[in-house]
Amino acid sequence: MSNKRSYKCEKVIERLHKKVSRQILGSLEACVHCGMCTDQCHYVLANPGDVSYMPSYKADKLRKLFKAHIDWTGKKFPWWVSARSLYTDDELEELKDTVFGKCTNCRRCSINCPMGVDMATFNRMARGLLVSVGVMPQGVAVVAKDQWEIGNQMGVLKEDFLDTLQWMQEELQSEYDDPSIKIPIDKMDCDVVYSINPREAKYDPRTIADAAKIFHFAGENWTMASEGWDMTNFGLFNGDDELGGAVARRCYEATENLRGKKLVISECGHGYRSTRCEGQNWGQKDVNFKMESSVISMLRYIKEGKIKVDKTKNPEPVTFHDSCNNARSCGLTEEPRELLNMVCMDFREMYPNRAENFCCTGGGGAMSMSEYTPRRLKSAIIKANQLKETGAKTVVTSCHNCVDGLSDLIRHYKLDMKVTQLVNLVANALVVPEKRKAAAEVATLVGYKILLADDEADTLAFFSTVLEDNGATVILARDGDEALALARKEKPNLITLDLSMPGKDGGEVFEILRKDPELSAIKVCIITGKPELRRLIYDRPVTPPEGYLNKPVANEELILNMHKILGVAHDGKKK
Amino acid sequence: MGQILLAGKNFDVDEDGFLQNPEQWDEAVAKDFAPTEGITEMTEEHWKVVRYIRDYYLKFGVAPMIRKLCKETDCNLKRIYELFPSGPAKGACKIAGLPKPTGCV
Questions:
Q1: Phi and psi at residue B16, in whole multiples of 5°?
Q2: How confident is the model at residue A437 (pLDDT cuts 50, 70, 90)?
Q3: CATH number at residue A551
């Protein structure tokens, strides 16, 4: 045996020392070769007799290396503990074939190991070591590059992203004939900042529209960020903690910059795990907001009566596929079922399920590694049988990766099933309230005094007509100084404030109002044609305004927002 | 890597069935690809979408965003999915002779 080692092998071994954490050390030491893991792996079950798929066999490939370089037993009697180092680039390629091509890091063997050996964790470590010397499937390299350089895994450019959101907004507005339905972008101080998988923007934005519909009818104060909106993270798949940290930080910072109170993560298993559970460690960053899966948000809207659903709209039998990352790694198992039972007539369990469910076979980044597709599809027979036995016509999953993995295998095994996500079913079951035309017919603003400050005569005329038709008493100011004088004199309930006005601009007026004890209780709604000036308001050291609208503002939108700010219900009663 | 017989010729395809050498594509290839993606007949509407994807790919080296595709071909989202049951990423891009799109698809 030659003892000459390739440059790449040198580097892998050098870096191995840094990668072995206590968790990995425990996993490397603890295996007693009992074989309990063998039957847990879908690759093994679909390839009986092929030892190269056995979790313990795959683990031993790494264990040999660990024994050779770190563990004392390997130094004293390497022949006895099968210690073996890496020497050639071919050996690295062989290792790549195992850690990328024969394991989806699904963790089913991990949770079934009596010794607590977390196979998936050190498989991920091995991927990281290989990636650090450039040994990885090409698909993984491309996606990681896009995430590093463009900021999302599909290279979606900012203008295209914003254009897509705008498009979905228009579709929703025309579907409901309601211009007040918005997909807000970069709105400050929201209760929810919604993050998504780039796949939604690039190929199938129906899930964005469905989520927006649900947020809108739930009356949520929400926004999306124009940057840092990708919550997926290829760092989880390629084992590169630096990439993982950079991507997660970008997502956290977007929420921080918008001073969002909660980061809601759309239905994506690895994205949820990376962003909610792992990213803070990788990125070495604490966050001061909450994070939750959109599944939990939707469930809460129904429980709190914010949205109403009619399950008869989803009558066909459905089953649920637990994503590995959601169920096994994050414990998100009961909420999706509770939600399914609320929005579907006929929900059927798949067996095994929850943390014991089998992988869709597309996990761990497998969907981006075409070279292993035949293996993936062969091992998918396990999943196909599971699906078939439910008798359901639709399989629901809370993971985009699973959507694609399942679609592929359904096609391959000709199962005649549809794949969908919870957000689609909830949106489909949504009972949309009668159009709020009542607002225009009932004088809902009687008794309220509203001061309108704007230097455009047309705007003043339009707003005052709409508000007076609804019974409000309206006072008009054409510049900042006049607005302040009238505010002191008339003490209105609410002031609408344009940002660019002669004399004192809207920002200055706003700060003076807030700092004056006699005026600070007056509610303020900023209405501007220059959304880029938003910072002028939100950066001031005072309580943010109660409302914020971008011009042009439609009739109904104006009334709706006045109601919201003043706490008036749409039928004119006080909330 | 495998091979597929389309329009009387053999083509190299990746393991997901996408053309390895996109420049070998022509309309006869697209026609033969169509049934593998659940399309019985390529209509003028199909062609409009496929040609747009093809041109965009040749110009920019990537598949277009679904937004652009819908805008430029006057097809709404629902119609795209009716035309290409396996979706724009897998179905339409494959027929247009693009390599497999990258990422979670």
A1: -95, 5
A2: very low
A3: 3.40.50.2300
